[in-house]
Design a protein that fits this description.
By secondary structure, this protein is an alpha+beta fold. Helix content is about 60%, strand content about 15%. It has one domain. It is globular, with a radius of gyration of 18 Å.
Length: about 140
C-alpha cells in the first residue's frame, strides 16, 4: 500500500498519495523538464499537474474522493491559490529528491507568464471583435 499524508487547507482535509512507480517517474520527469530554464510549455505543465492531482483526495464523511477531474478540483479547491498550494504539496511529497525551492520556482515562472498570456489573450480577443465588427 502506498503512503499517504494529510493536508489541511481552508478547513478541508486533503489526502496526498504517493505516486505509483512508473507514473511517478513520468510525472517527475515531465515536471522537471517543464520547470527547466527553457520553460515555455504552459499547457504541458498544467497537464502534468492535473495528472499529479489525481493522486490527491478530498475527505468527505470519512470517504476519500480523488480529485480526478476539473469539476471535482473546482468544487474542492475554492480558488487558484488553494489549488496551487495543493499542487506544490503533492509534487513536493512525491519528489523529495528535488532541491528545496524548485517547485516554488516553477510556479513563480508560471506566475511571471500570466501577464504576458492575459495580454496576448486580450489582444487576440480585441482583433477578433474588430473582425466581427467589420463584417457587420
Amino acid at each position: 500500500m502506498l503512503e499517504k499524508k494529510e493536508l489541511i487547507l481552508e478547513g478541508k482535509k486533503f489526502i496526498l498519495n504517493k505516486f505509483p512507480a512508473v507514473e511517478g517517474l513520468e510525472i517527475a520527469l515531465k515536471f522537471i523538464h517543464n520547470s527547466s530554464e527553457k520553460f515555455k510549455d504552459l499547457e504541458s505543465t498544467i497537464e502534468t499537474l492535473y495528472k499529479a492531482l489525481t493522486h490527491v483526495s478530498i475527505m468527505i464523511n470519512d470517504v476519500a474522493i480523488p480529485l480526478n477531474n476539473k469539476t471535482l478540483i473546482n468544487n474542492h479547491a475554492l480558488n487558484w491559490e488553494i489549488l496551487a498550494r495543493i499542487a506544490i504539496a503533492i509534487i513536493e511529497y512525491n519528489c523529495s529528491f528535488l532541491p528545496v525551492g524548485v517547485i516554488s520556482n516553477a510556479f513563480d515562472k508560471v506566475l511571471e507568464m500570466l501577464p504576458h498570456l492575459t495580454s496576448k489573450m486580450s489582444e487576440e480577443l480585441s482583433d477578433h471583435l474588430l473582425q466581427i465588427k467589420k463584417q457587420l
